[in-house]
TrEMBL record:
Domain of life: Eukaryota
Protein name in the entry: DNA/RNA-binding protein Alba-like domain-containing protein
GO cellular component labels: nucleus
Cited InterPro entries: Alba-like_dom_sf, DNA/RNA-bd_Alba-like, UCP030333_Alba
Molecular function terms from GO: RNA binding
One Pfam family hit: Alba
Occurrences of domain DNA/RNA-binding protein Alba-like (ranges): 5-51
UniProt keyword terms in alphabetical order: RNA-binding
Length: 110
């Protein structure tokens, strides 16, 4: 997959940050891959689940890997990696526009 469709998820930010980024990529390209390593895996799953349950996306592929990486002392450590590929859901436009309009109605009047 093209790197422009890839979202690298960390455990330091809430999963909703990645939901917003993924929605924009889905709108632009029609598919997105969420990548997480180690502790970030839970954020990957939560973001993907939220996108699917709200109608933005449909699960295309769910992959898990074991990755060996050297730590600070150059000792190889095995870490788990998750890659979830989503494609634009059939109700994407409606969900996207409904969210956009609800956000606009919440803006305070100046």
């Amino acid at each position: 997959m093209d790197r422009k469709n890839e979202v690298r998820v960390s455990h330091g930010k809430p999963h909703t940050v990645y939901v917003g980024a993924s929605k924009e990529i889905l709108k632009e390209t029609g598919s997105v891959e969420l990548h997480g390593l180690g502790e970030a895996n839970s954020n990957v799953v939560r973001a993907a689940e939220m996108l699917c349950s709200l109608g933005y996306a449909v699960l295309d592929k769910f992959e898990t890997f074991s990755v060996s990486e050297p730590d600070r002392n150059q000792i190889l450590r095995v870490r788990n990696k998750v890659v979830i590929k989503l494609v634009r859901g059939p109700n994407f436009e409606k969900a996207y526009n409904d969210f956009k309009s609800s956000k606009e109605t919440k803006k305070p009047d100046s």
